[in-house]
Amino acid sequence: MKSFLQKVSSSSQDTEKVFRELDKDEQKAKENSRVVLQTLKNEITDIAIKLDKLLSAYLDEIVSAEEYTAQKQKLLSRKVECNEEINEIENGSVSWLEPARAFVKSLNHAAELARSGDKSEMTTFLKQIGSNHILIDKSVSFSPKIPYKLAAERSEAGNSRLQNPFWRRREDSNL
Questions:
Q1: Distance (Å, whole) CA 113 – CA 2
Q2: CB atoms < 10 A from the CB of 97, how many?
Q3: In this structure, is residue 167 part of a structural domain?
Q4: For the chain, how many structural domains are there in total?
Q5: Residue-number span of the structural domain to which 123 is assigned
Q6: Which one of 66, 73, 117, 152 has the largest count of C-beta atoms within 10 Å of its C-beta?
Q7: What is the pLDDT of residues 82-117, one digit of tens each?
Q8: How far is the C-alpha of 88 from the C-alpha of 7, rounded, in Å?
């Protein structure tokens, strides 16, 4: 149990580094969201103006009832799409960050458990991060969830510390 915890563990220092990077990513995501939100809100304002002009043209009998209905439906459909996009952005623009933070925090918790040696806490933690727990010849065997398996494999390969320049990809994965 302890050896697996050591494989997936992350020091407090490394955890803080990752949290700082996640905070930077959150700020970037929020800034990008603000720009997109403003663009969508401007588009909704433009649609309202177009709807007013379309109504005026219809009342002045410049456009037919069929043209008015078709154009109005087109504009209202786009307005609904914009409002839906706004709701999606406002409700989930950085939703991926919380699971990432929880994962990093759990890696740090693994390090704390490995240091403490508390067997019951270790067992509870291992139950949370894996399945198919089997006790064979006084040895625990289980299947870790994929993120933890990857962390353990990386540790076994000798790249467990964040000093590795490839711990996180930068702007473009094709570089």
A1: 8
A2: 14
A3: no
A4: 2
A5: 2-11+97-156
A6: 152
A7: 999 999 888 776 677 788 888 888 888 888 877 887
A8: 38
